């Protein structure tokens, strides 16, 4: 068998249990071998370089790969020219997150670094043809030069300080940039460093800006790193992205001034290749020097199963000690030994104590072994588990699964080869082939590349557009339909590989990119012959050619023509006649299968077509890659309860093997399901997700690009069950008692018992002399079953160490780690020793049971009690607290103070009369939770009265056993309890239940995950069980209801009861006054065996039916009876009600009233008389009557509505009376009466008054010219409505000054000429025969003042309006008069005082004279006379009257005409 597995994955529990104890040994051996071999080589290389000059550059990257011990190197940033003059700084493209020491001595390391720095500078700034020699100095010369340099530096410093003190101002100057930062163009995810040198005195303060915004390193920790040292300032940007493209400014400022300079950073993304992952630098303020970290991965992820399209998260808690703030270890995730990088498919997160990997959209490419690796300075820890990804549901039933691992190879200007892996699921029908789709980046349109499906898992795609980027996907097809598309490939650019190399550049270890270009070729040259033409791939569908461009070419680019000829002929035929190809690759299709061809290529450009290349050898068009043969013998072996390790023999002579698919089938089902959906290359695989206890067979298929092999032969059937192995070592060795020559030891059970019960333990001891341990000696030859043992024949006051080994049927396990060193000296303390063998059982969300054994060492007095302590698992030692305040005497305790989801540890202390002794060793952490599927003990009593306790467990293993205990001691004597077990259930039966059986009974299931439960049988519970047992022995038929009576339709009387449980063979006897009744006309009996309802029906009750009715029941040996007594008043009341119901039934046979006549008052104060009728038909007549006289009602009757009503719109006293409605037809009649007289009418009116009161508005204040008015509106007013007005809670006595009234729907109170006495609270009270309703308003204070002021204003306005000057009338609008006539106009004038009168003509006052005579007589009559009218009198005239209250005018027009018709 073959197959290579990474060393850090082999040792995981997931892979195989046989590696579990070798993890540390394997890792250390790997590192020691690589480190020691490299150190030897490095020393030899260094000595050789010192003797004859260093000729090879030292690579820090090579060092980091080989050395496991991290050590920070000192980088050099000085750039020198050929004369070794400093010309600037060299910025490395990144600094690794972890650097490793070389294993050299200090001197040798210094030499290597000096040489490495020189070689880097030479490669940057000198020609590759020039060589420089590095001057080597001896250690003595170097020391002397160093001492002289220190002395000179000291003298210079002292001289500078002296001059500063003498004339400090002369030294001060503004900042100046000696070396300015330079601009950079970098690829995404690279690191970039901007640096500058600044001079100035005092020392300038330097600030960095991004697009004129200050850069704050703390805003994005780890993104920016600012450093300043010896006037050299730098800004480092980690893992650049597009957002880092910006203009950066550095500003230096001191008291003499400020100066700024700029540099640009451009971040580019290249879509032609997969982006290279660069190491992520470690950030944080914590230095690792001098600190040894301990790393533990806890709460890891297990084997996981997902489906395509789902999201899955893997996470693990990481504990690093010491716990340093903001320290971040190196967290790496691997899949199948390949380091994962963040992408759209996987996202990584570190929260400080938890590492999480999120797979955002599962595909089968994500299947594999995932490993979390946590690396610190001193060591690393790993954790692994397998992730399985199943196919998503097919869009078409029976379609195959999607292909996977689509990759692009050999990309050129217009050509790329797409490869993929075949799916494990073919949908039940063989796959006919595959279709390849492509999509140009920036679009969403997918186009199919091949017209017919191809079976080969590799396909050349042609016709690409140079310079554009593409992604590809593949779909499988069978006769049922098409599969879902695969995950898209990475982006690939259609371009010349040489152009891609030039674009990516060549990176030196310490610098940015160096772009290598070729000299411009000459123009007008016909290209030469292509070189090295060969057939790189040949199938029956296509042939792929590749070649190299000629050395001679023209100025512009060249293209190619491909020619073919059948082997054995010399007839060459050009293949691409229309368009020459640009790439030095070409795929030929449509070749005749089985024929042999030769090929050649010509170059062409604008200068012409060149000579053909050398022809290839004859190539036959057939599939050169065969489908692999079936794998050999398949051998399954047990692993865990849900997994099996499957191994097989590799396929023989398989070429280009991609991997294997493993399939499993439950024996007898003949249905195989894939165990893996991603091919595995090893010949050994762990199949997970199997059903415990089922038997499976397995088979394996191999695959390569040509297809899948035939299935291997089926393996032998294997039952899924945990493999039996020797147990792991015990742990927690402690001393329970010590005397002169012996010690009692205790230890804890192994965490893994190997799948079988532990049969015993072996104890070894050794003496420790002066700190040096001696040889191990066996303490017991025969295995001990308890986890405590007395080791004898020891020597007093000597020191000893112990180890323990556990044994099961598979053998003896490896020994535990040596215990602490114990001194064998007799204990003399008065208090007892520690309890031991603590066990936790019956774990629930809030409770658990703690079992323990008493201490071996009792102390001076016997132990008389125990105390239990508890604390959270992650709490400090000071967090221990007691569970019980009073000591318990039992060796068990139920703890009920747990919080769900919390993890706890426990310990026990024993006490005697002398006090409380030493605490026991704590238990392992216990999570307080109720596990799914947890069951409890159920007490059952069968039909014979036998009491038993029952416990069921669905998680049994073949080796599981039910163990019953009383007071947590196993029951071995079956005198009182008999245990019977069948399958997944066990029963403990009480033989003769009595007081001796009182206690706590528990049942635990071995070889499970702690399945256990308990039941407390108290004296009260025992008494209750015995009563139930007696009832089962002497049963009665239980009744849901006792005998009862009810009335049915027509007044029939029904006697009935319901039995809770009675069989079909039950018998019933009906008894009345000790006489058995039988079925007949009077009595009708019925027994429903399904519901247990027993009934007897009588048509009516007669006087002789008064007495006692009894139902007697019998069902096998179970009996019962129930009686009902009907005598005197009870009987008479029932009889009367029966007769009434009989009459009601007869009434309802014709038209009848379902609801009798009643009234309803609407919010609009309309009264409706209504009733509801039933059983009516078209001929039914409804007649309304009032006081015996027929009135018109609602005659529109329908069968569906059945409602009759009559409206009284404005009710008054005349509407009082007795209303009656009669319904009749040929079937009969029914009458309903409503009395609306006296109290009935008053109730109706009061209800209407209540509606009116509720509709009233709030009481408001209104001022009038007479005084102040209070008013409220109602929706409807009825003259019978009674209201009362109140002032200061007293009814108002109305006078001429204070009046009330109603106008429409307004109710008002008028206060004429209000005074101060009228202030106060006013209310209007509506009377409705009940509580009434009041509306109030406060007429006082500002409200009164405002109302009174408004009253005065209105009063004055009214007086002014009555007394103002007015022209009462008498003047015409137009007067037409003949010339020489006389005109007299008179009008009435009113006003007090008497108004002044003025006559106007054309807005000018007229003065009385001979022509115009103006008179005003008696203060009432004004006249205007024109004695002789002439034409000049024509015009507009007005009269204006005025007094102190106002002015008024009246206008008229006079038109004068001459006799001859002229005006």
Overall shape: it is extended
Low-confidence runs of at least 5 consecutive residues:
1-109, 118-137, 271-289, 505-522, 1195-1199
> Helix count?
11
Task: From the alpha carbons, calculate the radius of gyration and give it in angstroms.
Answer: 56 Å
Helices and strands in order:
Blueprint: H1 7-10, H2 23-52, H3 60-66, E1 78-80, E2 86-89, H4 106-125, H5 139-166, H6 168-171, E3 173-179, E4 184-187, E5 192-201, E6 205-210, E7 213-214, E8 224-229, E9 232-237, E10 246-254, E11 257-268, E12 294-298, E13 304-307, E14 312-321, E15 330-335, E16 338-339, E17 346-350, E18 354-359, E19 368-375, E20 380-390, E21 404-409, E22 415-421, E23 433-440, E24 446-448, E25 458-462, E26 469-478, E27 481-482, E28 492-493, H7 497-504, E29 506-507, E30 513-514, E31 531-538, E32 542-548, E33 559-566, E34 573-574, E35 585-589, E36 596-605, E37 608-609, E38 619-620, E39 634-640, E40 643-648, E41 659-666, E42 673-674, E43 684-687, E44 695-704, E45 707-708, E46 718-719, E47 731-738, E48 743-748, E49 758-769, E50 772-773, E51 777-778, E52 788-791, E53 799-808, E54 811-812, E55 822-823, E56 836-841, E57 848-853, E58 865-872, E59 881-882, E60 892-895, E61 903-912, E62 915-916, E63 926-927, E64 938-941, E65 947-952, E66 962-966, E67 969-970, E68 977-982, E69 985-990, E70 999-1005, E71 1012-1017, H8 1019-1033, E72 1039-1047, ...
Parallel strand pairs: 4-11, 13-20, 96-103
Antiparallel strand pairs: 1-2, 3-5, 5-9, 6-7, 6-10, 8-9, 10-11, 12-14, 14-18, 15-16, 15-19, 17-18, 19-20, 21-22, 22-25, 23-24, 23-26, 26-27, 26-28, 29-30, 31-32, 32-35, 33-34, 33-36, 36-37, 36-38, 39-40, 40-43, 41-42, 41-44, 44-45, 44-46, 47-48, 48-52, 49-50, 49-51, 49-53, 53-54, 53-55, 56-57, ...
């Amino acid at each position: 068998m073959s197959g290579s597995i990474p060393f850090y994955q082999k040792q995981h529990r997931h892979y195989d249990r046989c590696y579990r104890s070798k993890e540390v040994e394997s890792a250390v051996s790997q590192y020691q071998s690589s480190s020691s071999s490299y150190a030897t080589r490095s020393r030899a290389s260094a000595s050789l370089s010192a003797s004859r000059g260093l000729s090879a550059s030292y690579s820090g990257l090579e060092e980091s790969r080989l050395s496991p011990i991290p050590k920070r190197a000192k980088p050099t940033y000085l750039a020198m020219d050929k004369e070794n003059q400093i010309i600037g700084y060299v910025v490395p493209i990144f600094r690794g997150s972890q650097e490793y020491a070389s294993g050299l001595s200090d001197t040798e390391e210094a030499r290597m670094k000096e040489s490495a720095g020189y070689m880097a500078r030479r490669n940057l700034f000198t020609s590759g043809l020039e060589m420089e020699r590095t001057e080597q100095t001896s250690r003595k010369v170097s020391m002397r030069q160093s001492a002289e340099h220190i002395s000179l530096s000291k003298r210079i410093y002292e001289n500078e300080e002296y001059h500063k003190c003498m004339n400090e101002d002369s030294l001060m100057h503004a900042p100046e940039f000696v070396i300015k930062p330079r601009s950079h163009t970098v690829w995404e995810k690279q690191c970039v460093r901007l640096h500058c040198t600044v001079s100035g005195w005092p020392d300038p303060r330097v600030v960095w800006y991004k697009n004129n915004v200050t850069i704050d390193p703390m805003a994005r920790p780890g993104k920016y790193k600012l450093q300043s040292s010896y006037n050299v300032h730098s800004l480092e940007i980690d893992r650049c992205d597009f957002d880092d493209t910006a203009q950066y400014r550095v500003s230096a400022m001191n008291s003499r001034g400020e100066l700024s300079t700029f540099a640009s950073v451009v971040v580019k993304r290249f879509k032609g290749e997969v982006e290279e992952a660069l190491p992520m630098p470690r950030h944080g303020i914590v230095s690792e020097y001098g600190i040894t970290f301990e790393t533990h991965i806890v709460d890891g992820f297990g084997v996981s199963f997902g489906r395509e399209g789902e999201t899955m998260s893997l996470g693990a808690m990481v504990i690093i000690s010491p716990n340093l703030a903001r320290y971040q270890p190196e967290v790496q995730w691997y899949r199948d030994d390949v380091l994962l990088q963040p992408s759209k498919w996987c996202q990584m997160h570190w929260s400080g104590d938890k590492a999480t990997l999120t797979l955002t959209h599962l595909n089968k490419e994500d299947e594999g072994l995932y490993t979390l690796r946590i690396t610190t300075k001193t060591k690393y820890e790993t954790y692994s588990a397998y992730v399985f990804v199943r196919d998503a549901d097919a869009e078409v039933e029976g379609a195959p699964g999607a292909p996977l691992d689509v990759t692009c190879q050999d990309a050129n200007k217009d050509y790329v080869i797409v490869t993929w892996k075949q799916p494990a699921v073919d949908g039940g029908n063989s796959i006919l082939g595959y279709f390849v789709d492509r999509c140009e980046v920036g679009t969403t349109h997918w186009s199919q590349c091949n017209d017919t499906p191809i079976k080969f898992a590799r396909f050349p795609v042609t016709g690409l557009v140079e310079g554009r980027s593409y992604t590809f996907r593949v779909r499988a097809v069978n006769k049922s339909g098409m599969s879902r598309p695969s995950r898209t490939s990475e982006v690939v650019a259609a371009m010349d590989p040489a152009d891609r190399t030039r674009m990516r550049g060549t990176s030196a270890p310490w610098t940015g990119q160096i772009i290598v270009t070729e000299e411009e070729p000459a123009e007008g040259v016909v290209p030469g012959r292509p070189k090295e033409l060969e057939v790189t791939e040949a199938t029956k569908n296509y042939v792929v050619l590749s070649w190299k461009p000629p050395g001679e070419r023209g100025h512009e680019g060249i293209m190619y023509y491909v020619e073919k000829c059948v082997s054995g002929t010399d007839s060459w035929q050009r293949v691409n006649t229309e368009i020459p190809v640009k790439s030095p690759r070409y795929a030929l299709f449509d070749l005749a299968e089985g024929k042999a061809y030769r090929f050649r290529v010509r170059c062409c450009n604008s200068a012409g077509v060149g000579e053909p290349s050398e022809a290839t050898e004859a190539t036959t068009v057939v599939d050169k890659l065969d489908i692999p043969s079936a794998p050999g013998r398949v051998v399954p072996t047990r692993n865990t309860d849900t997994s099996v390790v499957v191994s097989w023999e590799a396929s023989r002579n398989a070429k280009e093997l991609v991997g294997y698919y493993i399939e499993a089938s439950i024996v007898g089902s003949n249905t195989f399901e894939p165990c893996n959906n991603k091919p595995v290359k090893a010949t050994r695989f762990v199949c997970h997700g199997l059903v415990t206890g089922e038997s499976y067979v397995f088979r394996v298929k191999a695959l390569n690009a040509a297809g899948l092999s035939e299935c291997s032969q089926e393996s032998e059937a294997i039952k899924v069950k945990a493999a039996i192995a020797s147990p792991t070592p015990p742990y927690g060795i402690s001393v329970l008692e010590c005397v002169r020559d012996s010690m009692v030891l205790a230890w804890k059970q192994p965490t893994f018992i190997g799948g079988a019960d532990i049969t015993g333990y072996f104890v070894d001891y050794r003496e420790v002399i002066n700190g040096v341990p001696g040889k191990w000696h066996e303490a017991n030859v025969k295995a001990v079953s308890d986890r405590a043992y007395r080791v004898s024949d020891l020597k007093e006051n000597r020191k000893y160490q112990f180890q323990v080994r556990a044994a099961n049927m598979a053998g003896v396990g490896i020994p535990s780690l040596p215990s602490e060193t114990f001194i064998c000296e007799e204990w003399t303390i008065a208090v007892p020793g520690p309890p031991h063998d603590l066990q936790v059982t019956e774990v629930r969300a809030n409770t658990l049971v703690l079992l323990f054994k008493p201490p071996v060492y009792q102390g001076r007095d016997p132990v008389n009690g125990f105390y239990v302590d508890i604390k959270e698992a992650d709490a400090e030692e000071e967090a221990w607290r007691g569970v019980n305040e009073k000591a318990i005497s039992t060796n068990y305790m139920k703890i009920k103070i747990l919080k769900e989801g919390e993890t706890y540890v426990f310990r026990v202390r024993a006490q005697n009369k002398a006090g409380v002794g030493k605490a026991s060793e704590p238990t392992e952490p216990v999570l307080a939770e109720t596990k799914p599927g947890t069951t409890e003990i159920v007490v059952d009593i069968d039909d014979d009265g036998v009491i038993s306790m029952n416990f069921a467990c669905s998680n049994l293993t073949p080796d599981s056993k039910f163990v019953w205990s009383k007071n947590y001691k196993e029951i071995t004597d079956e005198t009182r309890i008999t245990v019977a077990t069948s399958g997944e259930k066990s029963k403990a039966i009480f033989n003769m239940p009595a007081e001796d059986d009182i206690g706590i009974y528990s049942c635990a299931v071995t070889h499970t995950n702690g399945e256990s439960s308990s039941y407390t049988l108290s004296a009260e519970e025992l008494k209750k069980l015995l009563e139930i047992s007696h009832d089962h022995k002497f049963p009665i038929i239980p009744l849901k209801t006792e005998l009862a009576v009810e009335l049915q339709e027509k007044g029939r009387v029904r006697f009935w009861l319901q039995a809770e449980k009675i069989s079909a063979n039950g018998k019933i006897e009906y008894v009345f006054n000790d006489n058995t009744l039988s079925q007949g006309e009077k009595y009708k009996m019925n027994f429903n065996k399904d519901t247990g309802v027993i009934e007897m029906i009588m048509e009516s009750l007669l006087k002789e039916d008064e007495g006692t009715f009894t139902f007697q029941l019998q069902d096998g040996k179970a009996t019962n009876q129930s009686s009902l007594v009907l005598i005197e008043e009870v009987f008479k009341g029932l009889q009367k009600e029966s007769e009434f119901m009989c009459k009601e039934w007869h009434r309802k046979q014709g038209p009848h009233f379902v609801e009798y006549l009643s009234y309803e008052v609407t919010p609009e104060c309309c009264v409706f008389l209504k009733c509801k009728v039933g059983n009516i038909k078209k001929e039914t007549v409804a007649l309304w009557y009032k006081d015996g006289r027929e009135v018109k009602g609602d005659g529109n009757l329908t069968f569906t509505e059945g409602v009759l009503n009559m409206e009284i719109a404005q009710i008054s006293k005349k509407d009082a009376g007795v209303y009656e409605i009669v319904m009749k037809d040929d079937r009969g009649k029914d009458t309903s009466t409503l009395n609306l007289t006296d109290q009935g009418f008053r109730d109706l009116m009061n209800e209407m008054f209540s509606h009116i009161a509720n509709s009233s508005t709030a009481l408001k204040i209104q001022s009038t010219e007479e005084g102040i008015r209070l008013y409220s509106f109602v929706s409807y007013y009825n003259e019978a409505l009674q209201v009362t007005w109140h002032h200061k809670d007293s009814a108002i006595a109305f006078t001429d000054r204070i009046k009330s009234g109603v106008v429409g729907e307004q109710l008002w109170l008028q206060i004429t000429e209000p005074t101060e006495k009228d202030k106060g609270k006013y209310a209007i009270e509506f009377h409705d025969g009940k509580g009434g309703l009041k509306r109030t308003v406060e007429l006082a204070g500002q409200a009164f003042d405002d109302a009174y002021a408004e009253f005065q204003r209105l009063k004055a306005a009214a007086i002014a309006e009555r007394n103002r000057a007015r022209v009462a009338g008498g003047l015409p609008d137009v007067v037409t008069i003949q010339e020489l006539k006389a005109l007299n106009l008179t009008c009435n004038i009113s006003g007090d005082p008497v108004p002044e009168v003025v006559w106007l003509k054309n807005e000018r006052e007229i003065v009385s004279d001979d022509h115009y005579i103006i008179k005003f007589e008696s203060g009432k009559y004004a006249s205007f006379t024109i004695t002789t009218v002439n034409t000049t009198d024509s015009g507009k005239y007005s009269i204006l009257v005025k007094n102190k209250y106002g002015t008024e005018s009246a206008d008229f027009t006079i038109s004068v005409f001459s006799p001859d018709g002229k005006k």
